[in-house]
Q: What sequence folds into this?
């Protein structure tokens, strides 16, 4: 690692001020930042550690679930109230990485990093989450802007997530056997107003919604409704794990499994 200055602010205002520098990096769980620093792929002048802030916790109230940004994956996976309200979200958290990652990594860090193979972005997009930061509220559609890119401005910090409770939902993931990252992950959520389907792990620009599936499933919530709909391979990733055509096939498979499990 290169030399850096470590900060552990005691308030959100102090954290925002310290994180405003272009050379500073915010650390939540450190599951992405620390490995990249060890590999000398990142060399921030300052590390702003958010672990001293009161930004964790899960609350279910009024048809909504609010999750603090510093809530660990293991706590999301194990929360009894969340299992009753949105079991698919709790189950998603339980699929992330290994026990060490789940007990250290946070939902806020994962979403803010917007890794194209991360799980939570699909939940945010499919559930129509509101992402609350130190300065504003954003719909998930406006938050994710590209590969490892979000609408966050310098010094802006995600503080919590608000998820509407769906009628039904499920997440299915075809995982890398080593990292457990999603080669393809599909989150399906059914609301009174219709169905939302989000795909992670496959898009070259990160998480995206599958509107053809949404339209068909909003009419009939059944695997048969999307049986004949083919996902285009255009704009999908190709790598050593799976080419674009295989990922396109997996999107259909995972979507049908998610619908069947949700039903």
A:
């Amino acid at each position: 690692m290169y030399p850096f200055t470590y900060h552990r602010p005691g308030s959100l205002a102090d954290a925002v001020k310290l994180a405003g520098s272009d050379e500073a990096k915010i650390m939540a769980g450190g599951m992405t930042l620390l490995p990249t620093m060890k590999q000398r792929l990142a060399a921030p002048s300052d590390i702003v550690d958010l672990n001293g802030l009161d930004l964790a916790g899960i609350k279910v109230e009024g048809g909504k679930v609010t999750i603090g940004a510093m809530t660990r994956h293991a706590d999301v996976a194990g929360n009894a109230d969340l299992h009753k309200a949105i079991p698919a979200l709790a189950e998603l958290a339980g699929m992330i990485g290994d026990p060490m990652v789940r007990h250290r990594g946070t939902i806020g860090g994962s979403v803010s990093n917007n890794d194209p193979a991360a799980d939570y972005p699909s939940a945010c997009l499919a559930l129509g989450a509101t992402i609350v930061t130190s300065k504003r509220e954003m719909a998930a559609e406006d938050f994710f802007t590209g590969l490892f890119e979000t609408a966050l401005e310098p010094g802006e910090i995600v503080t919590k997530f608000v998820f509407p409770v769906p009628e039904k939902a499920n997440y299915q993931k075809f995982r890398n056997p080593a990292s457990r990252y999603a080669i393809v992950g599909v989150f399906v959520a059914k609301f009174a107003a219709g169905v939302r389907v989000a795909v992670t792990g496959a898009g070259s620009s990160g998480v995206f919604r599958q509107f053809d599936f949404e339209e068909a499933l909003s009419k009939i919530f059944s695997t048969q409704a999307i049986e004949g709909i083919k996902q285009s391979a255009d704009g999908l990733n190709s790598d050593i794990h799976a080419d674009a055509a295989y990922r396109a096939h997996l999107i259909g498979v995972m979507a049908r499994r998610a619908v069947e499990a949700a039903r």
Remarks:
- The first helix runs from residue 12 to 19.
- Residues 5-35+55-164 form a domain with the Uridine Diphospho-n-acetylenolpyruvylglucosamine Reductase; domain 3 fold (CATH 3.30.465.10).
- The first strand starts at residue 5 and ends at 7.
- The CA atoms of residues 15 and 131 lie 18 Å apart.
